[in-house]
Write a structure and sequence with these properties.
Blueprint: H1 2-8, H2 11-59, H3 73-81, H4 95-103, H5 117-126, H6 132-135
Length: 137
């Protein structure tokens, strides 16, 4: 027992214990911060996605036919707004309506870069993300 007390009283051991305690506090604090910030960021993304989905939904036929692979047109609008699907999967849309939906995902008119929906989707896919329509050609 005395040997353990002698070891713990050594200055290098005490310094190491202080550093270990600081590291533990930093790890706990970073975990707590991530628990607070992550839900906030998710809610911000969800709100933006829902707003876009509502705009997409305005152009959809609202027949809930299931041709696109979704149960409802709103589900399909959410997938389009999250770029997990594309407007070309809906058999009820005409080309003009598809193009209006695709235009929502293009850069602003002030931007020099103009992408078609297919080009934007191609870039997005090259980023490594996968869409539901990749499974169902």
């Amino acid at each position: 027992m005395i040997l353990i007390l002698d070891i713990l009283s050594h200055p290098l051991v005490q310094t190491g214990l202080v550093i270990l305690a600081i590291v533990a506090v930093v790890i706990v604090l970073s975990f707590v911060v991530s628990l607070i910030i992550t839900p906030i960021m998710i809610s911000l993304v969800d709100k933006s996605s829902r707003r876009t989905a509502k705009k997409v939904y305005e152009y959809l036929p609202k027949k809930d036919c299931g041709q696109c692979g979704c149960e409802t047109c709103m589900d399909y609008a959410l997938k389009i707004s999250d770029m997990r699907s594309k407007p070309y999967n809906c058999g009820e849309l005409n080309e003009d309506e598809r193009e209006k939906i695709a235009a929502m995902f293009r850069p602003d008119d002030n931007s020099d870069e103009r992408l078609t929906f297919k080009e934007a989707l191609k870039r997005w896919r090259s980023s490594g993300k996968k869409t539901d329509s990749d499974d169902n050609p």
